[in-house]
Amino acid sequence: MSGSDDISVSVDIAIEAEAWGEEEALRPLVERTLAVAIAVGRFDLPRHVEVSLLLTDDARIQVLNRIWRQKDKPTNVLSFPSGLEEEAGDDRPLLVGDIAIARETVVAEAAAEGNTLEAHLCHLLVHGFLHLLGYDHEIDAEAEGMEALETEILAELGIADPYAEVST
């Protein structure tokens, strides 16, 4: 799947939680989301990149969160960058990293935001992908930049700004 004229992205999808459904149904959404993220972000990446995506449940992501972040609770998305130091070969893509997304948390957040599951999944996929590329939101200035880029990518996908203030 091409993200732009110069960069292609391949995605290794593993589904641990059956509630996510079949890979064949999810793959087009996942590939399109990452391709748009790469095209809009104009990242300095090798010609071929690969991302591993784990679609799991709250129980599994809680274990990962406890092991890797010392936070013993479920979360929506975790990213595990591989580091961009390794060079991709002509025949093999550079593994950018792994993203894990928890079904129950995503469903609950989408409902609370009045959003569709697909739109929220796209948002979290973009968010996780940006973390793989070194973006962060621990400092306000970095958070603003990351959120602005997420919003731009999501707009290209036809998804509303998840950070916009909702007026009541």
What does this protein look like?
There is one protein chain. With 168 residues, this protein is α/β, with parallel strands linked by helices. It has a single domain, classed as Collagenase (Catalytic Domain), CATH 3.40.390.30. Helices cover 45% and strands 18% of the residues. It contains five helices and four strands. A four-stranded mixed beta sheet has the order 1-2-4-3, with helices on both faces. 30% of the residues are buried. The mean pLDDT is 89.
CATH class: Alpha Beta
The main sheet comes to: 4 strands, mixed
- Rg calc: 15 Å
* Mean pLDDT across all amino acids: 89
Backbone shape: globular
Structural class from helices and strands?
Answer: alpha/beta
Strand order of the largest sheet: 1-2-4-3
Whole-Å distance between the termini? 41 Å
Please give the domain count.
Answer: 1
| Count of helical stretches | 5
Low-confidence stretches: none
Name the assembly state.
Answer: single chain
CATH topology: Collagenase (Catalytic Domain)
Helical content, roughly?
A: 40-55%
Strand content: 15-25%
One letter per element, helices H and strands E, the order comes to EHEHEEHHH
The CATH architecture is 3-Layer(aba) Sandwich
Offer a concise description of the structure:
The protein has 168 residues and is an alpha/beta fold. Helix content is 45%, strand content 18%.
